[in-house]
């Protein structure tokens, strides 16, 4: 499998590392277009991949072209590389908010895949939601799925609206979880616990709780009830959460993110 990267940032590096580790490609099969000298040198030295300052120089005879750039640079980059694409190329975009029609029109290229990963993908435990145009050959769909699985779990959807929803839920989701983790650690410190101890307790509690939901198959509410003894401290804390509007705030926050992403997508 031959892969070109347009942009050599953090998510591109996660994909390069994952693809090489999974032996989906060799370093000789990977090319990266990256404008920053230091970043090109880093990727070349660490992974042995071919790097170029010009994006067009990485578009020769590649199977999959991965767009890994900032949203504000999308129009400029699409105008630059569109003429270098041929019928064999499949363009896989991890540009936040870039819709399928924006990509296909901007590139004048029909074979596009829209991908929305999240930051835990950097260590191979991410959640990626994706969709693809209908005319992509099945062997290239399968190859794209293999690439995305190096980031963690993946889910293919046919309705692109679900990508916008996933952007607000799973792509932005780590920020929500980090905020909750930070608040729990601060709560431990507020009680008088050393910060390093609070951090260890909270991180293991969050990780263990998520695994328990996954592996038990039980509803989170049911698991919550198993910790909540009548008249006990846990139910007292849960009451404080409810009185503070915790549940409603979470719903409103995710809905607000979704509306923002929809608006941004319409502007691109």
TrEMBL record:
Reactions catalysed, as given in the entry: L-proline + NADP(+) = (S)-1-pyrroline-5-carboxylate + NADPH + 2 H(+); L-proline + NAD(+) = (S)-1-pyrroline-5-carboxylate + NADH + 2 H(+)
EC number from the UniProt entry: 1.5.1.2
Subcellular compartments: Cytoplasm
InterPro entries given in the database record: 6-PGluconate_DH-like_C_sf, NAD(P)-bd_dom_sf, P5C_Rdtase_cat_N, P5CR-like_CS, P5CR_dimer, Pyrroline-COOH_reductase
GO cellular component, one term: cytoplasm
Pathway assigned in UniProt: Amino-acid biosynthesis; L-proline biosynthesis; L-proline from L-glutamate 5-semialdehyde: step 1/1
Keyword list, A-Z: Amino-acid biosynthesis, Cytoplasm, NADP, Oxidoreductase, Proline biosynthesis
Annotated family: Belongs to the pyrroline-5-carboxylate reductase family.
Chain ranges of the Pyrroline-5-carboxylate reductase catalytic N-terminal domain: 2-97
Gene this chain is encoded by: proC
UniProt name for this protein: Pyrroline-5-carboxylate reductase
Any Pfam family matching the protein: P5CR_dimer
Binding site for NADPH: 55
Annotated Pyrroline-5-carboxylate reductase dimerisation domain residues: 160-263
Organism: uncultured Chloroflexi bacterium HF0500_03M05
